[in-house]
Amino acid sequence: MRTNIVIDDTLLEEAFKYTDLKTKKDLIHLALKELVDNHKKMSLLDIKGDISFEIDYDYKKLRDSKCT
């Protein structure tokens, strides 16, 4: 999708310092991907404490039983 936007040049220059990217398009794509990934991680943090684990759970025993 083609879009025309006005972006702060100082902010762009600073962002380029933290990457090896050469184009504004690549920089915007990276920023959007990181934004989405960051929000997905935040969603996982929202469920913290909602999952309970069995104290005596033995993952090694489960792994061995699948192989036989």
Description:
With 68 residues, this protein is mainly alpha-helical. It has one domain. Helix content is 60%, strand content 0%. It is built from 3 helices and no strands. The chain has helices spanning 9-17, 24-46, 59-67. The chain is elongated and about 55 Å long.
Considering the chains and any ligands shown, give keywords for the structure:
68 residues, mainly alpha, elongated
Query: Whole-number average pLDDT?
Result: 86
Determine Rg (CA atoms, Å). Answer: 22 Å
What is the count of structural domains? Answer: 1
Number of helices: 3
Described by the principal axes of the CA atoms, the overall outline is: elongated
Number of strand elements: 0
Q: Give, in order, the helices and strands.
A: HHH
Which spans have pLDDT < 50 for at least 5 consecutive residues? Answer: none
Tell me the strand percentage band.
under 5%
Based on secondary structure, the structural category is mainly alpha
User: Termini separation (Å)?
Assistant: 53 Å
Percentage of residues assigned to helices:
55-70%
Largest sheet: none
